[in-house]
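Lab notebook, bench 4. The sequencing result for the construct came back, and we need a structural model before the next group meeting so we can plan mutations. Quick request posted to the team channel:

Model the 3D structure of this chain.
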Amino acid sequence: MELDDFYDTIDGVCEGIFRAKGSRFLAYAYPLNSEVQIKDILLRLKSEHPKARHFCWAYRLSPDKSMFRVNDDGEPSGSAGRPILNTILSENLTNVLVVVVRYFGGTLLGVPGLINAYKSATIDALNNGKVVNKTVNNHYLVSFSYEATSQVMKIVKDEQLNVLSQIFDIRCELGLEIRQSKATEILLKLEHIEGVIMQIMTGKYD
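Done. Here's the predicted structure in token form:
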């Protein structure tokens, strides 16, 4: 295959902390499947930390790790979001959002001090999480005659496919989840069964 169909992410929310000259940097790392989740996460954190000065964040998305964004939220440019992102990159993780909440302690840290603080808080959060390996899967709708049921179900069983939905009638339908790297091989087997019609529904990574 041209691209890996697996990736590393975190399996749940994890937290970290770093202190420097009275300032506290509270890091929260989240598994992320879509950018639309970010707004609600930030609103919740701002509600929980009404006296915090900054909410800086970065994320990386998609199995090929091609989507990312940083936000310094008022800190000097490049001193917060970028070191958070660089830490995610150094751990080779994707589908991850890290938000670092800063309580200002009254002493300016300077750009080098801020870079170290945001990096260190992120490292602590990710170290407190569990890294999991996930695969990129495609979803297919497979339609077939009732007479072909045993042949289709044999392939489903032999290949240990995840069945997402099923209808057994005169004309039957199965929603199947197939790992991307095995899709061509399995679809060829299904195509050899007379009357089978297949349609890709979506590609997803989870």
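The domain at 135-205 is CATH 3.30.70.240 (Alpha-Beta Plaits).
Will bring this to the meeting.
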